[in-house]
Amino acid sequence: MADDITISFDGQEFKTQPGKMLLEAAIESGVYVPYLCYHPGMKPFAACRMCVVSVEGQRGFPTACTTPVADGMKVQTASTEVNDLRRSVMEMIIAEHPSGCLTCHRVDICGPTDVCLRHVSV
Question: Is the pTM of this model over 0.90?
């Protein structure tokens, strides 16, 4: 088994195992990174893009669910830029989703693959 590596989330250092994805390391370290599509045991595919982060020395905003940890990695999970990007991503997700679900009194009985009683695919 490989030795633990050190990464930092928002300036706080944590130990983790090589081979993990940033999101897994964050969850295990108690660091909040929002996500919608990640599920333990399934191959990550970054469909929702809600877990974007900023990594020092990297261009753009990688998804935490598909970015492997590296020793010395410095990650920002809640900068203004990251939060603005997540807000835009969520706005696009909601724009493509039936808005009635957000205020429907039946939302607690719907499942992710159900068909809405108003005949709108969910």
Answer: no
Residues in the chain: 122
On whether residue 98 sits in a domain, the answer given is: yes
Q: Which residues pair with 121 in a beta bridge?
A: 115
Q: Which domain holds residue 48?
A: 5-109
Q: What CATH number is attached to the domain comprising 74? A: 3.10.20.740
Task: Give per-10-residue mean pLDDT for the chain (122 aa).
Answer: 90 97 97 92 92 97 98 97 95 75 68 53 44
Q: Does residue 118 lie within any of the structural domains? A: no
For residue 119, being part of any structural domain is answered with no
Q: What is the tally of structural domains in the chain?
A: 1
For the chain, the DSSP string reads -PPPEEEEETTEEEEE-TT-BHHHHHHHHT-----SS--TTS----SS-TTB-EETT-SS--BTTTPBP-TT-EEESS-HHHHHHHHHHHHHHHHTS-THHHH-TTGGG--TT-B-TTS-B-
